[in-house]
């Protein structure tokens, strides 16, 4: 490799690193005995929320006028948070189940 | 204590005075298991009637949820009584519940369309309110086996969800 090129390559690499978004996280929410645990979570746009349903009945994570994720009994379901904002969600089948996600812009 | 529950049914006009008077005072675990299982099966029967009669999307979705949830809970209940070697025991409260639900289905069978949807959802609210009250005041406190108590507690949370769901469907009927 030509020695004169290496600072340029180095700069290109730096520039490239800078443009790559921070690693998106996967945030776990456990559903146990009709509770979203934890009930409140904080995420960034691009993060994935995974709901792990330990109950014997199906649940949903539903935002009025927004997303609606079906989480079958004893299974998991995921959703990527695309929009920033604060979302109150509930289970359509058991509206006594409530949770909240605060999504910060990335 | 079961007398209180029977009183609630009587207040709703669901139970006859005779059935009220016959209410089991202190239900045993085999009786509690029978009452809880029966209550679930009766709600499934009501939901199946709704699925055969209603054309309302929300009412049908609710009825489908009732079939799924109560089937899941009762499957768990059957597995538990088998494990505990408990034989569910028929009793006056189970019989009274069955009679009240059978009469209600006969009454609902005569209705159709919006009138059926209104009567079915109103009854689902009342039914879950009554059964949840009985779970809280009588069945859960009377249950002696911790696993049975725990399943009843989970059931209560699920059925409280149904009560709220039924209220929402009833409130949003066209």
What does this 3D model show about the protein?
The complex is a heterodimer of chains A (106) and B (174). Chain A has 106 residues and is mostly beta strands. Helix content of chain A is 13%, strand content 44%. Chain A has one helix spanning 6-19; strands at residues 26-32, 35-37, 40-44, 48-53, 59-62, 68-71, 76-80, 85-90, 98-104. Chain A has a four-stranded mixed sheet, with no helix packed on it. In chain A, a hairpin with a 2-residue loop joins strand 1 (26-32) and strand 2 (35-37). The radius of gyration of chain A is 20 Å and the shape is globular. The model of chain A has no long low-confidence stretch (mean pLDDT 87). By secondary structure, chain B is mainly alpha-helical. Chain B is built from seven helices and no strands. Chain B has helices spanning 2-11, 17-21, 29-53, 57-83, 92-109, 113-142, 146-171. The termini of chain B are far apart. Chain A binds chain B through residues 33-34, 55-58, 73, 91-97, and chain B through 65, 68-69, 72-73, 75-76, 154, 157-158, 160-162, 164-165, 168.
**How big is the Rg of chain B?**
16 Å
Give the overall shape of chain B, derived from the CA principal axes: elongated
Mean pLDDT of chain B: 89
Overall SS class of chain B = mainly alpha
Q: Low-confidence parts of chain A, pLDDT < 50 over ≥5 residues? A: none
Sheet with most strands of chain B: none
In DSSP terms, counting alpha (H) and pi (I) runs of 4 or more, how many helices of chain A? Answer: 1
């Amino acid at each position: 490799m030509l020695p004169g090129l290496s600072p340029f390559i180095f700069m290109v690499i730096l520039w490239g690193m800078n443009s790559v978004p921070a690693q998106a996280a996967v945030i776990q929410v456990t559903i146990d005995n009709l509770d979203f645990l934890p009930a409140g979570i904080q995420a960034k746009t691009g993060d994935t929320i995974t709901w792990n349903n330990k109950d014997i009945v199906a649940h949903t994570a539903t935002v009025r006028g927004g997303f609606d994720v079906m989480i079958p009994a004893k299974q998991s379901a995921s959703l990527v948070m695309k929009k920033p904002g604060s979302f109150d969600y509930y289970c359509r089948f058991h509206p006594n189940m409530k949770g909240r996600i605060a999504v910060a812009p990335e | 204590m079961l007398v209180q529950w029977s009183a609630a049914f009587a207040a709703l006009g669901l139970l006859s005075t005779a059935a009220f008077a016959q209410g089991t005072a202190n239900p045993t675990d085999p009786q509690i298991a029978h009452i809880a299982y029966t209550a679930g099966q009766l709600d499934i029967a009501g939901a199946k009637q709704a699925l055969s009669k209603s054309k309302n999307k929300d009412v049908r979705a609710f009825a489908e949820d009732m079939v799924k949830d109560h089937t899941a809970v009762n499957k768990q209940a059957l597995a538990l009584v088998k494990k505990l070697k408990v034989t569910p025991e028929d009793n006056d409260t189970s019989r009274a519940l069955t009679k009240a639900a059978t009469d209600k289905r006969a009454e609902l069978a005569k209705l159709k369309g919006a009138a059926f949807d209104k009567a079915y959802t109103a009854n689902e609210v009342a039914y879950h309110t009554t059964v949840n009250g009985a779970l809280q005041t009588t069945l859960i406190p009377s249950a002696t086996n911790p696993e049975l108590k725990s399943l009843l507690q989970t059931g209560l949370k699920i059925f409280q969800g149904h009560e709220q769901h039924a209220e929402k469907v009833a409130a949003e009927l066209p």
